[in-house]
From TrEMBL:
Gene Ontology CC annotations of this record: plasma membrane
Protein name: Protein translocase subunit SecE
Membrane topology field: Single-pass membrane protein
Major localization class: membrane
Pfam families xref list: SecE
Localization in the cell: Cell membrane; Membrane
Subunit structure: Component of the Sec protein translocase complex. Heterotrimer consisting of SecY, SecE and SecG subunits. The heterotrimers can form oligomers, although 1 heterotrimer is thought to be able to translocate proteins. Interacts with the ribosome. Interacts with SecDF, and other proteins may be involved. Interacts with SecA.
Gene that encodes the chain: secE
Segments for region (Disordered): 1-20
UniProt keyword list: Cell membrane, Membrane, Protein transport, Translocation, Transmembrane, Transmembrane helix, Transport
Annotated family: Belongs to the SecE/SEC61-gamma family.
Amino acid sequence: MAKSPGKPTRPGFRPGKAPVAAGAPATVTIDSAAPKKKTSLPQFASQVRAEARKIVWPSRKETWITSVMVFIMVLVATLFFWIVDSGLTFLSQVILAIGQ
């Protein structure tokens, strides 16, 4: 449904229908006439094997590069939080010293 040019829209506004509150749950209908087909154990195992064949494992080089990047980010985050913590400690000591 395309917007009409020049006509403002607002959340929950539906032309010709009762307004719906923003974030109201949508109604869901379940078709109970069509029961789900049960999968047998051999079919399930076959489907699992088929999905497992789709897995693409990273190479040793990709794993190494990713691990190094994670280690670098951990060091950067450690340095950042150490600086922030030291700054806040110094600031709180200055504020407490002023109060005495």
